[in-house]
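For the sake of transparency, this paper describes our internal protein records without simplification. Because each token names a local backbone shape, the row as a whole describes the fold. One such record is reproduced below, unchanged from the form in which we store it.
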Amino acid sequence: MSSNKLTVTALIPARLDSTRFPGKLLKDLGGKPVIQRTYEATCATALFDAVYVVTDSQEIYQTIEAHGGKAIYSATKHQCGSDRIAEAVQEIDTDIVVNVQGDEPFVSKKLLEKLLAVFPSDTDKTIDLASPMIQLTDREAIENPNNVKVVTDNKGFALYFSRSVVPFPRAHTQATVFYKHIGIYAFRKQALLDFSQLAMKSLEATEKIECLRYLEYGKRIKMIETNALSVGIDTPEDLELARQQLKQ
């Protein structure tokens, strides 16, 4: 299933109390809860040796188990998804951990394959984690602080993430390219365990972007360019769009 004998596990962090859309993971999407759709879509990629939903909600835990899925109960309250899956992964024997967002029921197999492909050839373990980015061309999208922008070095490693416009186009030229970070991660298990032991520093606290913690402590994030836009469910309107997509 996984290449070069690397064991690959998908973990889906799932909180019930979302700020913008409470209870969204248990909302109906074509006869099944959103979180169940995400779990099944992740399993259907056949890229993983194991797939688990990691949750502090008994309702979500029971929903996954009732449908024959695997869930891990995370009793602790966590500040972010990385902390939640770091707690869960301590007991799992795996090399690579992929964090799949619970509200993305149409997770792209092609995108996950591209992320996982960077690890087998990285024998020196220079890559701590990999994450995708997509080019932004619309001025409004570039300036929107909800879109986290990323800049990379010439080998595709992240230099910085920001809600501001980076790079700042002091002189507007065609050469300036902007990338939006997509919050899907493939980690080496050790990088994830390290993350949970590291205190939040000033850049992460300022921007409210968790992957800045990795950079502040010298971890290396390989960015993979993609054009695969996934449908995340952040609002009731997003849920309606997802229902339409499912029908198609």
About this structure: The longest strand covers residues 129-136. The first helix runs from residue 34 to 44. The mean pLDDT is 92. Residues 7 and 235 are 35 Å apart (CA to CA).
